[in-house]
Amino acid sequence: MAGSSSIGEESDNPVAINVTAMVDVIFCLCLFFMCSFHFKQLEGKIETWLPKQSGVVASSAADKIILEDIRIILQWDDRTGATARRLGGLPPANSDSELMSAVVKMSSDYIKLGRKDFPVLLDVARDVPWKDVVHVMDILKKEKLERIEFTAPPAVASSLLKGGNK
After folding, report:
1. Which one, out of 8, 9, 80, 157, has a CA that is 20 to 30 A from the CA of 66?
2. Is pLDDT above 70 for 2?
């Protein structure tokens, strides 16, 4: 056998290539691409299931009641030197009881429709003292209205939407 040559003998291939490391790298690349691949979501496709036993139900006017937000607006009145408190588009309230009777009346509309978790929105101007804001929050808590949210005044909200910073 000393003089015979065969396919795959070392004399034909002087450089030995270690294929194990190359297979490991290819396997790692395959795993990387498989894990990082995301399928494109189909736009406009929504999976829905409609009831088969009933058809279109005519809704009554009671189902379409739109409730007004309970929004308390606090603004500083330079003329009187005090905070003016008003509920939505109503005229300013002169006392705590007048303000709270209007808030309780609006909250009863929510409760009649079965909505227990509704917010009371506080729209506070920048120049209103915090003691007045805390006082309004205290009287709301006494009436068991726990969900109080602050809103931005319309001028600030519109500038934020336009990209301005105030």
Report:
1. 157
2. no
**Residue ranges making up the domain that contains 157:** 67-162
Beta strands 70-77; 120-124: pairing state: parallel
Q: Give the residue from 148, 74, 88 showing the smallest Cα distance to 118.
A: 148
Q: Which three-class secondary structure state does DSSP give residue 145?
A: coil
Unique residue bearing structure tokens 């003998």: 9
CA–chain centroid gap for 77, Å, is 34
Whole-model pTM above 0.70? no
DSSP for 81-128 reads TEEEEEETTSPPBSSHHHHHHHHHHHHHHHHHTT-----EEEEE-TTS
pLDDT above 90 (res 126): no
84 pLDDT higher than 80: yes
| pLDDT at residue 132 in the model | 87
CA distance 63 to 66: 9
Whether 67 contacts 110, CB under 8 Å: yes
Residue 54 lies inside a defined structural domain of this protein: no
Count of domains in the chain?
1
pLDDT of residue 150: 82
In-domain check, residue 45: no
Instruction: Give the strands of the sheet with 70-77, arranged side by side.
Output: 82-87, 70-77, 120-124, 148-151
